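Summary for the funding panel

The consortium committed to producing paired sequence-structure records for every protein in the target list. Below we show the first two records in order, beginning with the earlier of the two.
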Amino acid sequence: MDRICVVGCVNVDMVTRVDRFPSPGETIRGKSFGTFPGGKGANQAVALARLGASVDLVGAVGDDAFGKDYLERLAREGVGIEGIGAIGGATTGTATIEVAASGENHIVIVGGANDHVDRRYVEGHAPIIRRASLLLLQLEIAIDAVVAAVEIASESGIPVILDPAPARELPASLLARCRYLTPNEGEASLLSGVDASTPDGLRRAAQRLLAQGVGRVIVKAGSRGAFVAGPDGFELVPAMPVEAIDTVGAGDTFNAGLAYALSRGDGLLDAVRFANVAAALSTTVVGAQGGMPGGEEVRRNLIRRAGQASAGQASAGQASAD
């Protein structure tokens, strides 16, 4: 398995747990507060490392205590940090997160050092991207940095997975360079201009994105699983049911699971199954990175689910015979 490169955001997450979200102008009491490592780029890199991938992260931190601690943490996790600069005079990015008892979340991001990750910065780290077998990106950094990274990868024949979050409109020229696009339903709606909140709408949204040149569209649909769309059809890969405690980071774990499985040669549907299980497991612990599972844990759950499915089919067959 070759190296995977992640280009993206490094944040410190400040998480407040509440029974419910406050209304505008309302003050409520929180249940707890904690500080956790986050940022979609760093999350995906850590998730990949825990799954067993060799991974490099291209991003930036501030020259503050948060940045120093984060670099040490990433190194301990096994993430390659050659591509992470400590920006003088900048603070490390932060994300202020409210998590309700339902597991839903609200997030406010301050870019800090991440705002220095632009086209020039990414081009300066082109050798790290070029030595990868796969590139994984998100949209928490400047769009010109995303475009630059995708151009570098495409020119080198490196497949690109783009997680289009946070949602924003993207140029068709960027979408056309993406082998895999992994929006949630809201992001699929924004990118396609089609309401993807219904099964029919989701199918039409995916078809419109495919028409713009995307190789495959994998729509993350939470507890339902993921919808996989390509020239050869449209299929739902069901999620693994769990009791979710905290969904922050689940999408990042999904993308990491997908990238990891594809990099080791799995077919797309098998890779999505792996990603679904990894994402489900990640929701059972608080913190974006806190619940990210190891590869063996994901494989054990995949085997267990396969056994349950086989037992169910056998029971159905016996009932039919009776």
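The next record, for a separate protein in the list, is shown here:
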Amino acid sequence: MPGSFTSSFSIEATRPNAGEVAQIADILPRATPVYFSAVPTITPAEIVTAAASLRKAGLEPVIHIAARRVTSARALQDLLARLRGEADVRRLLVIGGDIDAAGPFTDALAVIQKGRLRDAGFEEIGIGAYPEGHPRIPPGRLEAALGEKIASAAAQGLRVHIVSQFSFSAERIIAWLKQLRAGGIANPVKIGLAGPTSVPALLRYAKRCGVNASLRGLMSGAAAALIGNVGPDRIIDALAAVRSELGDVHPHYFSFGGLVDTARYAREKAGAGDAAPAIASSR
């Protein structure tokens, strides 16, 4: 049943305002992880304020740290100190950021190795991964970098989970996860899924984020849904069917169609399977 896969989930938010935070706090289970995107124009003060707002609302803020956008080691330490001290942030998502480096950190690995994240009081980090590959990084390098990041973080006592780029192809996601597990990587994976969004909007985001390879899979079922929003139901069903083969995996919803609508969708999918654990335990 999908419930065993969807019952625990996280959501990606881009600059949520106070009204949106209040609304999703009423929809989502307490302590739901809400990942706060590192948009290029946001200031450190705005990041801290947003994190504090999410924490106050009873949600779990997970803040993106985009390595190449960090201007200096001091700027990173100042931001980390404020996130811990003012918003009780405990988890980060460390990514490269698709721009030229503005400071000393050339990629996510550099932040993990030199950013003193554990010393700053953080307990866990997420690292990015790409089921369809990366438009600018060779597959071999992607695989090696993933292993290096996990090893470096674990050596510092940081828990590590993986957050994947969204895809519209269940087959690609499943094949990637099986390859990951076969390679000995057992860390939890939050599988990127596009929340309920119009097909034209999904096409725009897919092209922008470099997931063109699965567009054919999206369009094969999209003709009847060009009016109104579509959600990742087919992918969720396919993943749920083989979840026992994939290890610790759960959805991570990108809120392209709006944060509140995505929160409602995620909560509905989670609620649909609430009975699944009880059924399993009664055997």
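Regarding this second record: Residues 3-270 form a domain with the TIM Barrel fold (CATH 3.20.20.220). The chain is about 45% helix and 15% strand.
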